[in-house]
Amino acid sequence: MNLGQAIILRILQAIPTLLGVVTLVFFLLHLVPGDPVDALLGETALAADREAMRHALHLDVPLMQQYFTYLQGLLSGNWGQSIIDHRDVWLRMMERLPATIELATASLLLAIILALPLGYWAARYAGKIQDTASMTFSLLGVSIPNFWLGPMLMLLFSIELAWLPVSGMEQAGSLVLPTVTLGTALAAMLSRMARSSWLEAMSMDAIRTARAFGIAETWIWWRHAARIAAIPVMTMFALQLGAVLGGAVITETVFDWPGLGMLTIEAIQRRDYPLVQGCVLLIALFYVLANLLADVLGLLLDARQRHV
Amino acid sequence: MSKRVIYLLVCCFSLPVLVLLLSAWMNLDGHRVDLDNVLSGMSATHLLGCDALGRDVLARLAEGLRLSLFVGVVVVSLGACFGITLGMLSAWYGGWVDICLMRMADVLLSFPGILLAIALAAMLGSGVDNLILALVVVGWVGFARLSRVQVLSLKHASFVEAARVNGMPLPYIMIRHLLPNIAAPLLVEASFGLAAVMISEAGLSFLGIGVQPPNASLGTMIKEGTSLMLVQPSLVVFPGLMLFLIVMAVNLLGDALRDHLDVKHT
User: Fold this and answer.
1) What is the pLDDT of residues A261-278, one digit of tens each?
2) Mutate to test the interface with B, among A25, A147, A152, A181 (most CBs of B within 10 A)
3) Is residue B49 part of a domain?
């Protein structure tokens, strides 16, 4: 199979998965125990109001018809309407998306800036104090819950030292704490991956040959081994492009960062089911795209993966 | 296990264990409201002080820790049971069963895990049972995939063939012959899964879609503590520290297990 075919095959494989994702999101509404209309309006609501709500949620038609209406709506760009303020779900999400993209980009940048030197350090001085230090950071990073790290950073930098604003996104520097909160876990995972792939690359025959030719050690690490080690690291980074949005849900709530994640939680608290469905679907779409990107990157960078 | 790991493990476990023991020994009640001691600091009667309703923080920490461990163990056990059974059956029978199950797994893996858990728990309604259900739905997939891949490579091994021609029933083959051979990576998955579930439980409770007040979860305690950070910072420091320590201990165990059993990637 050549490269183009492999990539096209991978993209085609994503289609049934996407359909499954949409189906699951559709059925989320039907997970609400009992009648969703009761959950929204209470059991004492007027019959006319109940009927109107039932109609607004398309619950007054057979299940299959609801499903196809939903699919049709998604394809034609109609993601439904909020049942609280009757505004278009798509527009509401697009208002919030830029803030999330800003936070996600900053966190991913921080992650890669931290992870590469840490991973290199740990691999180059494997078993020494540098390795221990760097892997301790990694262990702390994956173990610390972001909904606690956030308040702790606030306590130290906003309240005790008063260097940075507590929350929101209006003031200068307000991006810093959410970025550190979200980026730490990503950096921890990435640096671990960088360390192990660098070490694996350094044990290859090509590296032994390079050493035999008398090439400078640092040059081997950054020029020869880094190219091999980059494959799993870049794949993981591509996966994190999607995963960061999951983490953003909690981080945004901690810092009142007005992005997609906070919108999801607001929608959940107000039982705005169409908006919840829209947000979950949009984040899942990003996630699927990121996974696809990771696979395609793997195919592009690593010829071995094309023959599976 | 190296000495360093054991030392670290003892460090991580000692504080949570101390909290659990002290609370049991002093026979504390985390729901008793003591309005004379609202937001009080450390004292002889309330070792870690009281929260905004005058409830003993130490007792609530112990309650939260117990809940965290309970949810973690239940979710991982249920997820492992479903996942391993489905994964093994899927690999054994192949064909349509396999395709359907793996498509389902793909779909569940197309969501960031925490987001799917949030969405499911929000729709099902709050409460510990729904929280457990949501986390199991997210958690079984990893076990299923791992056991499937391994059974696929083992199912034509000669010792399995031998058991088959000897007329052993399928459940016997699976439990006696296949399971012991695929257990190592599953154990590692389970230990990292336990850490992830404990963080998720607290995270969902933090967002208000898990454990409901007045019951204590480390997540709800962090949430309540955050709003009182200016008055009494210890209310947010302690619960998070407990969660952090116990999660780190479990992660350390997972790492040690992985090195010991020589499992490559999970």
Assistant:
1) 999 999 988 888 889 999
2) A147
3) no
Instruction: Say whether residue A34 is in contact with chain B using an 8 A CB cutoff.
Output: no
In a domain? residue B50: no
Give the domains, in start order, of chain A with CATH numbers: 89-307 (1.10.3720.10)
Domain membership of residue B33 (yes or no) is: no
Our count of domains for chain B comes to 1
Q: What CATH number is associated with residue B210?
A: 1.10.3720.10
| Minimum distance, in Å, between the CA of residue B160 and any CA atom of chain A | 26
Q: pTM for the complete prediction?
A: 0.87
Pairs of CB atoms within 8 A across A/B: 128
Q: Is residue B86 part of a domain?
A: yes
Q: Which of B107, B207, B226 sits opposite A20 (nearest CB)?
A: B107
In three-state secondary structure terms, A80 is: coil
Q: Is A88 helix (H, G, I), strand (E, B) or coil?
A: strand
To the nearest whole Å, the CA of A38 is away from the closest chain B CA by: 13
User: Within an 8 Å CB–CB cutoff, is residue B118 touching chain A?
Assistant: yes
Q: What is the largest CA-CA distance in chain A?
A: 85
How many residues make up chain B in this entry?
266
Contact A97, A259 (CB under 8 A): yes
ipTM score: 0.85
Name the minimum distance, in Å, from the CA of B166 to any CA of chain A: 35
Residue B135 belongs to domain spanning: 3-24+56-261
Q: With an 8 Å Cβ cutoff, are A29 and B195 in contact?
A: no
Identity (one letter) of the amino acid at B3? K
Which strand (E) or helix (H) includes residue A290? Answer: helix A273-301
Mean pLDDT of chain A: 86
DSSP bridge pairs for B56 = B50
